[in-house]
Amino acid sequence: MQVRYFHYRLHPHGTVRAVRDLGCRWHAPYTAAVNCEALNENGHTDWYLPAYNELGVLYSGRSAIGNFIFAGNTAYWSSTESSSGAANYVRFSDGLFGALVKNTNANIRCVRR
Questions:
Q1: Residues whose CB is less than 8 angstroms from the CB of residue 38 and which lie 6 or more positions away in sequence, other chains included
Q2: Are 71 and 16 in contact (CB under 8 A)?
Q3: What is the mean pLDDT of residues 87-98?
Q4: Which domain holds residue 62?
Q5: N or C terminus: fewer CB in 10 A for the chain?
Q6: Nearest-angstrom CA–CA distance, 58 and 61
Q7: What is the pLDDT of residues 10-64, one digit of tens each?
Q8: Phi first, then psi: what are they for 74, rounded to 5°?
Q9: Could you tell me which residues come within 8 angstroms of residue 103 by beta carbon, excluding any fewer than 6 positions away?
Q10: Residue 97 has pLDDT above 90, yes or no
Q11: DSSP string of 84-108, one letter each residue
Q12: Residue of higher predicted confidence among 26 and 80
């Protein structure tokens, strides 16, 4: 699975990697998804909040992708709900996968279709 990341740069190996996060923390995954979908970066408007499995791909490639937050709040929202009141996340400091209540602060990394 290839995932294109927000603020991307072509890596010498031909993969697309992120340079940074969207730049803010959102209080709910819905707000994060809306902001990703509204993003217009370098003329690209096909951004979205990654699903749980896609966030796992980002975590697996975190060293090559770079610029993830590894101290403090290291949780990144996914667009995948675990219940009506919670959504899945990945904590990039240690790889913990789980669910957070939707009003919890977490980071986002938009990806391209």
A1: none
A2: no
A3: 92
A4: 4-112
A5: N
A6: 5
A7: 333 333 333 445 545 545 667 888 888 888 888 888 888 899 999 999 999 888 8
A8: -105, 10
A9: 27, 28
A10: yes
A11: TTEEEEEETTTTEEEEEETTS-EE-
A12: 80
Q: Which residue has the higher pLDDT, 81 or 41?
A: 81
| Parallel/antiparallel/unpaired status of strands 96-101 and 106-107 | unpaired
Taking the C-alpha atoms of residue 101 and residue 51, their distance in angstroms, rounded to an integer, is 16
- Please indicate, yes or no, whether the overall pTM of this predicted structure exceeds 0.70: yes
Residue at 85: amino acid letter: G
Q: Measure the CA–CA gap between 4 and 45, rounded to whole angstroms.
A: 13
H helical segments located in 1-113: 29-38, 52-60, 62-65
Average pLDDT, the chain: 76
Number of domain units in the chain = 1
User: What does the block give as tokens for 53?
Assistant: 């499995």
Assess contact for 99 and 83: CB atoms under 8 A.
yes
Residues 41, 7 contacting (CB under 8 angstroms): yes
